[in-house]
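Bit of a strange request maybe. I'm writing a small parser for structure token strings and I need a real example to test against, not something I typed by hand. Could someone generate the tokens for this chain?
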Amino acid sequence: MYTVLARKYRSQTFDDVIGQDPIAQTLKNAIKTGRVAHAYLFTGTRGVGKTTMARILAKSLNCLAVDAPTTQPCCKCDSCVAINIGEDIDVIEIDGATNNGVEQVRELRQNAIYRPARSRFKIYIIDEVHMLTVPAFNALLKTLEEPPSHVKFIFATTEPNKVILTIQSRCQRFDFNNISASKIVEQLRSILKQEKIKYEEDLVLPLAKMANGSMRDALSLLDRLISTGAELLSVSLLEEFLGCPNSEKIWNLIAEIGSSNAAGTLAATENLINSGVSEVQIVDWLIEYMRDLMVVKSAGVESELLILTAEQRKRAGELAEKFDVAALIYNITALEKLRWTIKNSDTPRALLEASLLRFALSEHFLNVDQLLSELQACPRTNLSGTGPSAPVKKKVVADNPSEPGKYPSSPASGSAGPGRTVRAVEQSAESQFGEQSKLPPVSDIQSIKDNWQGILKVITARLGPGTGGLLSSAEPTRFEGGVLTLEFSASGQMHKKMCASSGRLEQIQSLLSEQFSMPVTLRFETAVSQPEQPEPVREQPKSAARPADKVGSRRKNDITNDPAVKTVLMGLDATITGVEED
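Reply from user aminoacidic:
Good idea to test on real output. This should exercise your parser:
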């Protein structure tokens, strides 16, 4: 008679347990010191070893080969053998899903008072204990609070939040972790070797990842592959019989997205759908694969956080170069939201394709930080790189930092104030400044103030609109001994910092020295902000509502005065055409 792998290779002792070493060690220590609790609560997802650990604990307490509880049960005596198959008269396994009524619990209480027939302890293992009704839980409370010395309870559940707190407080709780893919891989290889089954090496890792942390699920999947009768277990069997994605098709889709190839993205999506894959599955796989790329960008291709073969690591490293971390974060979060939308949509394919195209065309969305950096890097040209007089048509996006990637952006999310999205369309980038002649000689602060707008025009023409825009929020306040003090407004802290970085300070000083015909040193200061006076409260009739146009005007004014936005607008000679509130 064939025994499924999950039963055949079930752990028999604490040392055999895979992926739950801390719990196994704690229970062993409890047995050694004689501090075994009267009730335990084992929690965790399916197939991670809860019931197996319960049986091992039961064998350790009742093994007949020794005179006291042991951490190394023999697994050969009548008690150990009967516990293994769930038929021991002193270890009673109960399914909480079907025996969840108060009558069953009352019967349990009545039987618990009787001593075990042949063992040291009478042990009750209740699986899926969260399925008990509230009256049943309440009926169990008294026994749990003052149990007979010969009784032990072991509860197992996948949903501990449904176990009432009065029960939990009377148990020692152990939370079982999902088993890592690497440990599942080791076990699968060991079993395949013992079963003398030929397999492709690239088969094991995707099979382990499909188990989602459950050893039992991994062994069940392996059983399905073996039942196909194939002489060699190959990767193609995963796609044909288990619905595992063709990794090459997924990589190709991601490559098209990273290459900003709209047509290629649609074709790669079509290829996956034609192979029988659902839209939700595509989303799930893209999340998983893009997570790997995010790890590569953040921790390197050799990171232990990656569960990939050598060939997959190489491919991931190559594709990661097509993305930045901010774009991957956006893609993953957007896909997670898309997943639930697609499941309830009548047009899932259209939604999927639209989202993937948005990823692919993300280069058409620029954030404030990127525009600022481009203005700094190319001071004499506009963002298109075609010269100061060429018209440019760009979209500027400033995302809310609390919602990363509201719109696709690269390389990092910018902010134009909390919860706001700003779109500015440049009307024209034609240069406003021709050849500038040298300014009239200046000798004191008053002459500098009188000529300040002209000085800014010269700076803008010579050093670029980015630098000119940064200095637009500064005012000259003192000029003594060749030291010119510029005072930035309280809201211009970022402008002040950017003027003093990236070599911009030296460029401005050099230009001013040339214009003033004398060495000039700059000193930057920040104006002390004055506390705003509270506006008098005016009572309005309860039925009166604040005019929508007033609110919109105020918000637009706040955004227009944001330092980052002002710099971009100055650099692009752009105007704000609309404000959207998130």
